[in-house]
Every structure is written in structure tokens, then in C-alpha cells.
Design brief:
The protein has helices at 2-13, 17-31, 39-52, 56-72, 77-90, 97-113, 117-133, 137-153, 157-161. The chain is an all-alpha fold. The protein is elongated and about 60 Å long.
Length: 163
């Protein structure tokens, strides 16, 4: 794995613009959720270049992955919420419902983990709307399941049971 990472880094250093973004995208995928390969810094470079090149949907998808990383790998949901807020403040023109769905599910998790359970319910509902738009049963199922967990956590057992 280290050999592949090193080879991609060399190619990235020798590339510019779209080619460099494609290689960073590959490297982010290869190192996803692996702190030992500095995933955090790699994906942040990918996001920054995607924004610079107006590839906001790619930036959004990688931000969703970085939010998940902060929630579930390094245990920093507060950082994850900040990532979401910065992206949504900076770019309101995300057109990919798949990216939006992932962003809202992962950020809902962040709110849940920080104890803002009511806020997580709102975010899971938005995620479900985006999942319906792309007809993703998996993402709809996740959004409903996690929304149900949130309702249960709040003591709204009848509401949780219909999720």
C-alpha cells in the first residue's frame, strides 16, 4: 500500500489542475479512513483543489467522507460540524443529491454524537429527501434507521417505530 501511495504522490507533484485533481481523488480513495497515511491532509488538499477548479460536487463528496472520518475514526464530531458549515456557507450550488445525502447523514451523525439529537433528526430528514431523489434504497434506509435511533434516544418511541 505504501508503494502505491508514494507513486501517486510523485504523479501528483508532477501534475496540475484537472489531472492533479484526478490523482488526488484516487489517493483520497486509497487512503480513506487511514490516519496512518495522513488521510486527513490528503483529502483536505483534494477538497481545496476541487473547490479551486469549481468541482463543487466532488468537493462535497470528499467533505462528506472527511466528516465521516472525523465522526467515526478520530472521534471529533465538532470538527465534522465545522466542515459541513464551512462547505455549505461557501458553496450553495451543490447539485449532486448523492453528495448532499451523504453530507446530511454524516453531519446528522455529528449532531447525534455531540448530544444535539433534535438537530440530528432534522438532518436525517433532509438526507432522506435527497436519497429519494436518487432512488437509493440503501441511503433511504440509513437515514430512516438513524432517524429512528434519534427518536428512540429522545424517548419518542412511537415516532421511532415508524421509521
Amino acid at each position: 500500500m505504501q508503494t502505491k501511495v508514494n507513486a501517486l504522490k510523485v504523479q501528483i507533484d508532477q501534475s496540475k489542475n484537472v489531472k492533479q485533481l484526478m490523482l488526488l481523488d484516487s489517493l483520497s480513495g486509497l487512503t480513506r479512513n487511514k490516519p496512518e497515511f495522513q488521510y486527513d491532509s490528503i483529502v483536505r488538499k483534494t477538497i481545496d483543489l476541487a473547490k479551486k477548479l469549481d468541482s463543487i460536487n466532488l468537493a462535497a463528496m470528499h467533505t462528506a467522507n472527511l466528516i465521516n472520518f472525523n465522526n467515526n475514526i478520530v472521534g471529533k464530531p465538532e470538527v465534522a460540524i465545522e466542515l459541513f458549515n464551512n462547505l455549505m456557507h461557501e458553496y450553495k450550488d451543490i447539485s449532486s443529491d448523492a453528495a448532499l445525502c451523504q453530507l446530511f447523514i454524516n453531519t446528522a451523525d455529528s449532531y447525534y454524537y455531540t448530544g444535539e439529537v433534535l438537530k440530528s433528526v432534522e438532518f436525517y430528514k433532509v438526507a432522506n429527501k435527497h436519497a429519494k431523489k436518487i432512488n437509493s434504497e440503501r441511503l433511504m434506509g440509513l437515514a430512516k434507521l438513524y432517524e429512528g435511533y434519534s427518536h428512540s434516544h429522545l424517548g419518542n418511541f412511537s415516532e421511532a417505530s415508524i421509521r
